[in-house]
Amino acid sequence: MDKAFSPGDIESRIYAQWEASRYFTPSGHGPAYSIVIPPPNVTGTLHMGHAFQDTIMDALIRYRRMRGFDTLWQPGTDHAGIATQMVVERQLNAEGLNRIELGRDAFVERVWEWKKKSGGLIANQLRRLGASVDWQRDKFTMDPALSRAVTEVFVRLYQEGLLYRGKRLVNWDPVLKTALSDLEVVSEEEMGSLWHLRYPLEGSDAYLVVATTRPETMLGDSAVAVHPDDERYRHLIGRRVRLPLTTREIPVIGDTYVDPAFGSGCVKITPAHDFNDYEVGQRHGLEIINIMRPDASLNDNVPAAYRGLDRSIARTKVIADLEALGLVERIEPHKLTVPRGDRSHAILEPLLTDQWFVDIKPLAAPAIRAVEAGHIRFVPENWSGVYFEWMRNIKDWCISRQLWWGHRIPAWYDDEGRWYVARDEAEARRVHGLDASVALRQDEDVLDTWFSSALWPFSTQGWPDDTPALRTYYPTSVLVTGFDIIFFWVARMIMMGLKFTNQVPFREVYVHGLIRDHDGQKMSKSKGNVIDPLDVVDGISLDALLAKRTTGLMQPQMKPAIEKATRKQFPQGIPAFGTDALRLSFASLATQSRDLRFDMARVEGYRNFCNKLWNAARYVLMNVEGQNATSEGAQFSLADRWIRSRLSAALARAESGFAEYRLDVVATALYEFTWNEYCDWYLELSKAILFSDDASDAEKRGTRYTLIHTLEALLRALHPLAPFITEEIWQRVKLSAGVSGDAIMRSEYPTPDAARVDSRAEPEMRWVMDFIEGVRQIRGEMDIAPGRKLTVLLQNSRPIDLEYANRNVRYLSRMAGIAPPQVLPQGEAAPISAVALLGTLEILVPMAGLIEPEAELERLAKRQRKAEADLNKLEGKLANAEFARNAPAEVVAKDRSRLAELRTEIGQLTAQVARVNALRAAAPP
Predict the structure, then answer these.
(1) Which CA distances in Å does 118 have to 41, 88, 111, 125?
(2) Which of 136, 139, 183 is nearest to 42 (CA)?
(3) DSSP tag of 489
(4) How do beta strands 70-74 and 32-36 pair?
């Protein structure tokens, strides 16, 4: 093996071998285990959230594959209607073109070209991350077979009366000029104004004052509403007011929707431009007056002075004109909730348009029952409550979008405006008896992207045909998803899966948290804190990272702050850590928390772990290759039995972690075993056997056998999390371990073995380790050179202490650097010694001759002064109320922990000074 682990030299080579050998293809043997990848949008490249999620899915698939399951990880990408159309339109704009000039067919062809390019980038990223998806089955939501499934679902829903077309108020994006579903609306609080306007009462000099945050919409008012029990206005119900700036009069109505305590208690009602007003208008039969064009400019239903004005300009003019008429009572600052499109970030308008809708409640009812009955289990379980809350209050789903990119709605219109839903135009003519003389045109709109995504688990397996894949891999085993798309995607998949297959689409839903930056902030381009997962794998220079983060900013003024923060966090850029270190970091983050902080220090720690594993393998091979490492005739030492027992315990924790979707538990169990037990202890303990002249061949054979077989099992255990390094090392060790196989993923995952749990070896080895650590602590505190052999006396020993000490002299002598321990006779005074405690046993290291008292006291005094200065400074800092109040909680906790460490250190130094003074006092003059 090479001296150093270099992930860049092995990862691409190994993945190419896996793919060429088709190791990711389902085996066709064993129980089926399948996962569909949440299809990434073909709008660019994978981000850290994708990489985190893909690591989880790949680990689950690799684990089940090694457990003998017939595994399928279904790959694919989503056409992402709005997002993709926006990307391509921006490209056209940069070329001085627009889609209208280009025309629909040419534009769609341009999008397909972009898809081929972007889809290839995503596939390359997945390969670099080690994703063991079955590339032979790669799907795209607009593939012909999947498009056929989309059409089939649309037609069947329509035929059953569960899909309809109607004029309804929808969320309208005036930038993208399309309807959006409620889930595509991002509502945030913003500061605005509350205008109090006077509406004159007909036949009177009096007026009503209405409060509004959108004064321009008054031009579309149909009524003024008051609460029917409001004593101030109840007598006015049925009268009329003159609508300012227009020639219309509108009624005063009574409705319990009105909150008498808000504003004046009078509310303007604009049914065409407010969802609540629309419901009021329906109850009272009010006129619905649309005053907006698709681009949010005012149309011909308003007075001539306002026609064609953008809504914001119209607002300014309306207020100015009202003020000139003395009809503005007052204007107040007001915090309001503003709806914006999740893609364009434009302020949305409620707009009355013709759209297609799914009657969703009949589909929601069985989906609710499926989770209630336990046919689908959410992990963690608390997410089922979120699911129920939304599903029990679900509203009809607007599925039409005024876009060009996507699945075109399978409906055709004649010249009279009648529509015919069918799988194609020929079917529409045949079913409805329309001959060639009747001109038909297909609906211009496309379907919401989430409509096709809702079919993903079964459309990818060949539905509506009854295919072997559908029978074998559907329902899928688990859906791995973030909590942010439970409504967008998870709920809709459950509804559609039950409706069209009579089965749930997955047995379990593992809901993971979202990756944040090291400060807990959401990663976004505007914040300049986005990290490309491949930059962590391959490394990136500071200049290249700055260019990535500041190019194409929507808010160029943010560039200096982004550059400053980037330089502070990554002064030298990001070093190359390799895929395995990144994947192990992700696994360790996979707790049940909602927000998961990604810290580069964690990745660095796992890179060090990979290096540790690599070096351990080199040591093992150097001492095992070409040697007899069989178990036949072998004699197993205490350390051998102990490490096999500890391996079984680690495997039990890993098995439990996989079963409970706690990859953090898996990662921690295997990390701690590898680093703390196998490398730090067992490899060192093995030297006491292998390098000993008095160890027998049988003992050496037992140690060699344990070294290689523990390593080989450990590699298999780590493989789902760290596939590349484990494959590379496993190929080197399998021969010495006496195992066969062409790839580690095709070997069996190691399982805990109750027969290997050694209840005698574990406490004895714990005693040995504590003894060694006690001596090492004394050596460290007294600054004694590691190579200096020490005398050790045992006091207050029990019989078991002496038994352990006598049996394990070879370990104690080598690893603690001591002569064989001597028992201090009962009643004999102990020399001045440094002491370590092991239960009741006192481990004494006589100090005479080990140190020069005067020099040691000077060294200790210097350390004491520094520790006390640090302590005083930290105590003052923590006593500062302003610091405690404003500093981040983790900073305060870190400082308090350091304070405790300093106090402990000062106590130890004081005790050591006392021992040295006693030694000086006892020295002959």
Answers:
(1) 9, 11, 10, 11
(2) 139
(3) I
(4) parallel
Q: What token pair was written down for 527?
A: 């914040």
Nearest alpha carbon to residue 61 among 744, 730, 721, 725: 721
CB atoms within 10 A of CB 919: 22
- pLDDT surpasses 70 at 743: yes
Residue type, 413: Y
pLDDT of residue 188: 85
Predicted structure pTM score: 0.87
Q: How far, in Å, CA of 745 to CA of 23, rounded?
A: 8
Confidence band of 691 (pLDDT split at 50, 70, 90):
very high
Mean of pLDDT values over 895-908? 88
Best CA proximity match to 78, nearest among 138, 14, 9: 138
DSSP string, 432-449: HT--TTS--EE-S-EE-H
Q: Which of 774, 737, 766, 755 is nearest to 642 (CA)?
A: 766
- Dump pLDDT digits (tens) for 248-285: 999 999 999 999 988 889 999 999 999 999 999 999 99
Enter the tokens of residue 560: 């200096």
Which pLDDT band holds residue 554 (cuts at 50, 70, 90)?
A: low
End-to-end CA distance of the chain: 60
Residue 33 β-bridge partners: 71
The CA-based angle 216-217-223, given to 5 degrees, is: 135
Amino acid at 141: T
For residues 399 and 358, what is the distance between their CA atoms, to the nearest angstrom?
A: 7
Side-chain-side CA neighbours of 429 within 13 Å: the count stands at 12
Helix axes 638-659, 663-672, angle to 10 degrees: 170
- Return the pLDDT at 358: 97
What is the Cα–Cα distance from 420 to 151, expressed in whole angstroms? 13
Rounded to the nearest integer, the mean pLDDT of the chain is 93
| Best CA proximity match to 586, nearest among 12, 16, 14, 130 | 130
Distance of alpha carbon 745 from alpha carbon 58, whole angstroms: 12
pLDDT of residue 801: 96
